[in-house]
Amino acid sequence: MRALLHAPNVHGGGGLALLQALLTAPDLQFSWSQLDLRAPDYLCVPQEIAVHYVRRSVSARLLAEWRLWRECGAGDVVLCFHGLPPLLPVRGRVVVFVQNRLLIEHGRLPGNPRRVRVRLWTERVWSRALQGRSSRYIVQTPSMAASLRRWLRRDVPVSVVPFAPAAPSVATCEPQIAGKKFDFVYVASGEAHKNHRKLLEAWRLLAQAGQRPSLALTLDSDTYPRLCRHVAQVVAEHGLAVTNMGALPGSGVDALYRTAGAMIYPSTAESFGLPLIEAARVGLPILASELDYVRDVVDPAQTFDPDSPVSIARAVKRFLGLAEARVKIGTVTEFMAEVLR
Question: Are strands 260-265 and 77-80 parallel, antiparallel or unpaired?
């Protein structure tokens, strides 16, 4: 039996970090792999693994599916690390690792560029129509497993097997804001579900109330130029203490955590939320969405409604120990006085 690794579209974010952890495991058993051509600069692939790099194009992806079909024997095991079952009926046993919650959602995809919506809708159809080719699914959290089981139309086993990259061997951070370069950090790419726009609106509300906590973002201006321009515009218009550090390698992210007082995480959909685990490892308090994926992996210091900038801003105020003005409850007489005024 051989183990084959199929990951033709894993090239960034938490998926890339998990792929690197997999490839550097001491008991690695893969003998053949297909990897995204955009990933080699971030991956250390052992020499004993035969590698085929896949370009970012429809024709290249289809060729990769054909190559997998040709390579896989009856006794082999294929790990589809990119979350999609094989397009062609391979002879071996197929294990699909689902890391993208958007693939198993039924709703619309607001806020994403048209090309991203087309890709996600295509992958949703692909994954749903061909789920019978999967021998087993693997996810990393109980809430993700529950979502996947509701989505499945077949009785395919689902295993919950969480793993993460090894923690950096450095001293633990002190979990307080005093003396830090940034009050808050948000390590995330710029997809719509990462919710940067509502986070910025919350920061604008805080500035309107006279509070300007500092915030570090990690957005790649080449990949998300429109969002980066929006961030720069809002920061300039309202004088916000928001700094975009750009895309950072793993070591850069670790260093950024150690300059921050807390992690804020307003994402509306995650299969795992690797930055939450990384932040917790270095002792950062976490302010996050009140959603199942968060409490699967960490106990946040404060939570909020990710769809409400007001809720996000209030959670920040609570964490900072700032008073929040409440509505003054009047009388019926005062109400009628306003009616008749």
Answer: unpaired
Report the half-sphere exposure of 99 (CA within 13 A, side-chain side): 22
Do you know the residue count of the chain?
Answer: 341
87 exposure class (CB count in 10 Å sphere: 0-12, 13-18, 19+): middle
Distance (Å, rounded) from C-alpha 284 to C-alpha 267? Answer: 17
Q: What are the pLDDT digits (tens) for 289-310?
A: 999 999 999 999 999 999 999 9
Predicted model pTM: 0.81
Angle in degrees, CA 211, 213, 218, rounded to 5: 145
Give the chain's domains with CATH numbers: 3-160 (3.40.50), 182-320 (3.40.50.2000)
Residues 88-111: pLDDT tens digits? Answer: 999 999 999 998 888 887 776 767
For residues 90 and 75, the answer to whether their CB atoms sit within 8 Å is no
Pairwise CA distance, residues 124 & 12, whole Å: 20
Provide the β-strand partners of residue 97: 138
